[in-house]
Amino acid sequence: MVRRNEIDDIDLSIRFKFGVHTIFLFVDASSHFSDVSSELLEVLQERFPDGLKADKDSPPTALPDDSSQIEFAVLRSQTDPSLGWIPLHAKSDDTPVGKGLKDNQTVAFAFRDAADEDFGEVVFEVAFPTYEEEMEE
Q1: Enclosing H/E stretch for 29
Q2: What is the gyration radius of the CA atoms in the chain, in angstroms?
Q3: What's the number of domains the chain is made of?
Q4: 73, 88 contact by CB (below 8 A)
């Protein structure tokens, strides 16, 4: 059994996914989601200033201006991505451990429209590579 104070000192390795992109970050298990969102947006702005692609043929999706517009979700089934995603509805002061995130977990992210103040549903678009795609490249 792991005690709460032991978890706080561990960084979680998280694979954040959007479309065809995967961003691998080390996240402090006890940090707030506002900090996680800010770090993720900073990396995205540096690496993908023109936006992210949902699939290899789609136009880029623009990055948000504010990290509070980033929403997160986890897989319904770790072994079957086709079952979709469960939104985390993480508040800015929630922590990754408090939301049940574990080391080496895949977490989808999407951007909420700045005008959407009631936190309506966002669509988590994630493309997992297939064997056929790997053979084409």
Answers
A1: none
A2: 15
A3: 1
A4: yes
Give dist(CA 13, CA 24) in Å, integer.
7
Phi-psi region of 3 (alpha: psi -120 to 50; beta: other; left: phi over 0): beta
Q: Which amino acid is at 1?
A: M
Angle at CA of residue 130, ends 110 and 111, nearest 5°: 5
Residue 66 domain boundaries? 4-136
Taking every pair of Cα atoms in the chain, the longest distance, rounded to a whole number of angstroms, is: 48
CATH code of 59's domain: 3.10.20.90
Cβ atoms 106, 55 nearer than 8 A: no
Mean pLDDT of the chain: 86
For 8-113, strand residue ranges (E) read 11-18, 21-28, 70-75, 85-87, 105-111
Q: What is the pLDDT of residues 49-59, one digit of tens each?
A: 999 999 888 89
Any bridge partners for residue 28, and if so which?
11
Give the helix/strand (H/E) hosting 136.
Answer: helix 131-136
Distance CA 8, CA 6 (A): 6
Model confidence over 62-107: pLDDT tens digits? 999 999 999 999 999 988 888 999 999 999 999 999 999 999 999 9
